[in-house]
Amino acid sequence: MTTPSAALCLKRAFDTTMRQFQSVKLRVD
Question: Which of 11, 16, 8 is nearest to 24 (CA)?
Answer without folding.
Answer: 16
